[in-house]
From TrEMBL:
The entry's keywords: Cell outer membrane, Coiled coil, Membrane, Transmembrane, Transmembrane beta strand, Transport
One Pfam family matching this protein: OEP
Homology family: Belongs to the outer membrane factor (OMF) (TC 1.B.17) family.
Highest rank taxon of the organism: Bacteria
Species of provenance: Salinimicrobium oceani
Coiled-coil spans in chain: 150-204
Keyword Transport: yes
UniProt key word Transport: yes
Major location category of this protein: membrane
Annotated compartments: Cell outer membrane
Name of the featured protein: TolC family protein
Length: 478
């Protein structure tokens, strides 16, 4: 197998690939497509998103912790945080806190959400595998189309070689006067027609190669080609398997059924989540907070010299006045920052219960919508199974029909070979003209082309049936 260096630019993300093979086998094309196809990559992203969804759902079980801090300046009539008195001032205040909250019970909705996320992840994985099967089939079909076009060209070229030999012989016979010039013109017309067919066939090869390269996200069309070899028919034994057994295997292994089943499970889980809204929710919280202020603080300065004592009451029985020392105060500097934080801190904690009583039928209607969704998913699962059964029947009929067409094409080619040999003998002894002989050769050419077409059509339809029977796409033999 020849190898060259080429640069392939992926259409979607511009990845440069070097040292590509010029001639690609079918298995290499399938594996390359499974790694680089845009649809496959998008499905892989869906799997990654489902992993994140599982992480989100698990995070709902963990407590939420939030910290806050603020530093503000107030100018004008504000409350002095130290004295509690309203006064006109400019102050700076700092506060900070940490709050933690956790859900103790919410009707099991968090638990159901976690189950939903894990099921959704499985659904995305099934969708990815289904996408890989579809892409592999598309690639195989495109690859076999290239092979058919190449074989078609080979048949025409082989017939053209025979025509050129006949043309050379006819020219000699015409010059010798042993063959009418009309026969020579007929052979020349046949040769010209075959040259035109070769041009058309070559164009079909190039178009089919470009189509395959685009499917593989390769833009170096000039250097892209496939490995030419004779693909045999493998796996014909699946045609003898009863269709009921194939359907049973398909229902167990095919991802479209698994996806439909998973979607039903998701719908049922959504219904359980909606019903959880009928239940009360219970949560717990804990808060730690502290504060600091740049405002001055009142400090004692001894007895007031103007009024050292102040009356605070009197004894009713003796009418004796009760006095107390009257301490003078003054505004001092605020305490240090961290000392204030330590002195002014505090905590709060507790539980909170919310009981749903009435919310405008929102919960009831959501439950009903999800009940409809469950029924819809069950109908879709039933329809998917019916479609799969029909597809298996169709695939088996197509494969058996393709086999009969291939066998008939082989018999037709054998008959045309004998007819062509007989026509050649008659033409060589002058018992038939060039037109009839060319017509016989044309019929043989069409018979050989039909054998090639029927063969690759049979191979592809046989592989489709094998997929339904549970053979992995990477294990298919060509």
């Amino acid at each position: 197998m020849r190898r060259i260096l080429l640069t392939a630019v992926f259409l979607s993300f511009g990845v440069v690939v070097s040292a590509q093979k010029k001639e690609w086998t079918l298995q290499e094309c399938i594996l390359y497509a499974l790694e680089n196809n845009i649809s496959v990559k998008q499905s892989q992203l869906d799997v990654e998103l489902s992993d994140i969804q599982v992480s989100d759902a698990f995070g709902n079980f963990l407590p939420g912790i939030n910290a806050s801090a603020s530093n503000s300046w107030n100018t004008g009539l504000t409350q002095n945080v130290t004295t509690g008195i309203l006064q006109t001032q400019t102050t700076r205040n700092f506060s900070a806190g940490v709050t933690a909250g956790v859900t103790l019970f919410d009707g099991l909705r968090n638990f159901k959400q976690y189950q939903y996320a894990k099921i959704a992840k499985l659904a995305s994985q099934y969708s990815l595998e289904q996408m890989k099967d579809d892409v592999a089939l598309f690639v195989a079909n495109a690859y076999l189309q290239v092979l058919f076009n190449k074989e078609n060209l080979k048949v025409i070229e082989a017939q053209h070689e025979i025509t050129l030999e006949q043309l050379e012989r006819a020219e000699a016979l015409v010059e010798a006067g042993s063959l009418p010039r009309g026969d020579l013109l007929e052979i020349q017309a046949t040769a010209a027609n075959e040259e035109q067919q070769m041009i058309v066939a070559q164009n079909q090869i190039e178009i089919s190669l470009i189509s395959l390269a685009q499917m593989l996200l390769i833009k170096d069309y000039e250097n892209f080609d496939i490995a030419e070899r004779d693909y045999e028919v493998f796996g014909a034994e699946v045609l003898d398997v009863p269709v009921a057994q194939v359907i049973e295997a398909a229902e167990e292994d095919r991802y479209e059924v698994k996806v439909a089943e998973i979607n039903r499970d998701l719908a049922e889980k959504n219904l359980e989540i909606a019903r959880g809204a009928y239940w009360p929710t219970l949560g717990a919280f804990f808060n730690y907070n502290t504060r600091e202020s740049g405002a001055g603080r009142f400090i004692a300065a001894g007895l007031d010299p103007d009024e050292p004592f102040r009356e605070i009451g009197f004894v009713e029985s003796t009418q004796e006045v009760v006095v107390a020392p009257n301490m003078a105060t003054e505004i001092g500097n605020p305490l240090p920052f961290f000392e204030q934080l330590q002195l002014n801190d505090g905590i709060s904690y507790g539980v909170q219960l919310n009981v749903p009583i009435f919310n405008g039928f929102a919960t009831r209607n959501q439950v009903k919508r999800n009940q409809v969704g469950v029924l819809r998913s069950e109908y879709q699962l039933e329809q998917t199974r019916l479609d799969l059964e029909a597809n298996v029947y169709q695939a088996q009929r197509d494969a058996r029909g393709a086999l009969k067409a291939y066998e008939a094409a082989l018999l037709a080619r054998e008959a045309q070979v004998q007819a062509y040999e007989y026509a050649t003998e008659r033409y060589n002894v002058g018992m038939t003209n060039a037109f009839d002989f060319s017509q016989s050769k044309f019929n043989l050419q069409n018979a050989e082309i039909e054998v090639v077409r029927a063969k690759y059509d049979y191979i592809f339809k046989l592989k489709v049936l094998e997929l339904y029977f549970g053979v992995p796409i990477t294990d298919l033999k060509f």
